[in-house]
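Supplementary Note 3. Input sequence used for the single-chain structure prediction.
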Amino acid sequence: MPIKTLHITNSYHASSGGIRTTYQALLRAANQHRRPVRLVVPGEQCSVEEVGEFGRVYTVRAARLPIGDPRYRTLLPSYLWRRVHPLWSILRDEKPDLIEVADKLCLPYLGGLFRKGWVQSIPRPTLVGFSSERLDDTLSSYLSSHPLLRGFARWYLGCVYLPQFDVHLANSIYTAGELTEARRLHHHRDVLTVPMGVDCDLFHPARKSAAVRRLLLERVKAGEDAVLLLFAGRLAPEKNLELLLETVKRLRGDTARDYRLLIAGEGPLRSRLQAESERLMPGRVCFLGHLGSRERLAEVVANCDVFVHPNPREPFGIAPLEAMASGLPLVAPKSGGVTSYANLRNAWLADPHGSSFAYAIRSALADCRLLSEKTIAARETAVAHSWEHITSRLFRLYDQLHHRRTVRVAATQNSNSNPRPLPA
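The predicted structure, written as discrete structure tokens, is reproduced below.
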């Protein structure tokens, strides 16, 4: 009988985000594999949504934090100490075999409560921490890059976060790096890497459409020969979005091509970026906002010319992988989690500076043969990361982790009940 997994995250918004995309894919796969999967997320009000026969999403009323993206809500650590809180009702009703927590600051203490044996009403599950971002990068983006904060992040991960769980998963070697470093200094825990994925049926070169491209050109008031650059993602401090504007400034002087930038997505930096782009290069940057559906996003991606991803500290990057699946050339930094799948064979990698990115964009469009070779290789890379493959791999891993822990527990119980005789 398949094990029941329950996943809890604060990094969830109803309309966007890599974590949301990942868990939505896992819920769809749950019904294909006929295995129970539960997801607990913060929201404005408590609700329950059935996703097919085997998937279920619990939304728990949660607070907004004064920093970060105001669209997101957060389940706070104080909720864990209120035994009448809806979160505990969910856990008592579901009694999952495995709990995965995708949160480093507010929710990892749930694992510690189970590990300490302080939860008596629920059978002890296998406890997994899932890392979709680096804590040191988050602190640097929202607070400061001071070395003391990076030192605090390493201490916190080693002494507080790592011990809460039986095992840790990370979405890239880059994301896992700070965990493995902290593990050497403090507590030993296995850290395993499992990538995120892409819907290769939705994001496909077949979505290229003269009609859709014409609408995009009209949106930016450009002629048919214009080059449409695209960024899709949250407009947040950690995304290094200023590099997009710097790159367009570098390209503005080209007389052979008319470069226009489309930015799809919402976030706290939109108004500032919009004002800056209008001041520096009016008419060359168009903000599409939230596109409303994954299908609409897939149409836009397939009908642009180059996908530009500016973040050198990207934990993984589903959006660049979706661009690769769509047959779009990818220009990205040669660092961070993007390099777990993007390389010189299937993308154009550059230093995260406007001049380097501008050169990479020109290079991507200069050689038709190389462009074809790289985009074909990019599509192959995306297919290898299809959600079908990734979710199957995740389910196998969850089974293995749970089996390993139950065998270890059984061996310990047998050892305690049958002590070895003392030597004569």
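The first helix runs from residue 18 to 33. The CA atoms of residues 156 and 400 lie 28 Å apart.
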